[in-house]
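Good morning C.,

I know you're traveling, so I'll keep this short. The sequence:
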Amino acid sequence: MSNMLKILIIIILMIVGIQDTPPKRGTIDKHFIPYIEQWNQDARRFLGKDYKMPTITIVFGKVDAFKLSMAGRPIGVCSPIPFDRFIMIDREYWDTISTQSREQLLFHELAHCTLSRLFHTKDMISEYRPISIMHPYLIMSGTTYYIYREYYIKELFTKNIGRTYWHAVITQIKNLIY
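The tokens, ready to paste straight into the viewer:
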């Protein structure tokens, strides 16, 4: 069994085990609605006016349970399985960050779950500015993100266009093998 598949299974089991009562499929906590509306607006600009976000569940939860499987303190996690997409965000962290950082965090997780952006990139434009919001750490200040938002949104929606979830997984597995 590949490392990717093992990690995916661990994430799913941890998500299921963390919730007292699992949320109904497609539940989106009301705090995320304005960001989802912005996501859909941006997606339609780059992916076409017919874009429709797949069914996804987005809730607050105990994301700190994931620290055993990830470096650093996780603040959001996504299970990108096409038939049951699920995002969980750390509520304590969410309550301390700016609107721009909230958008950046949620868009990062949404890209994992809905755009097949399964993997992070650590590439940097400068010392404090990653090439993508798919960087593994939320290191940009809200101001930096705000100034360069158009660049980041375009990069988010136009990199890997046409790739499906399974294409991304197979490509990553091939990269691990060869």
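Safe travels,
E.
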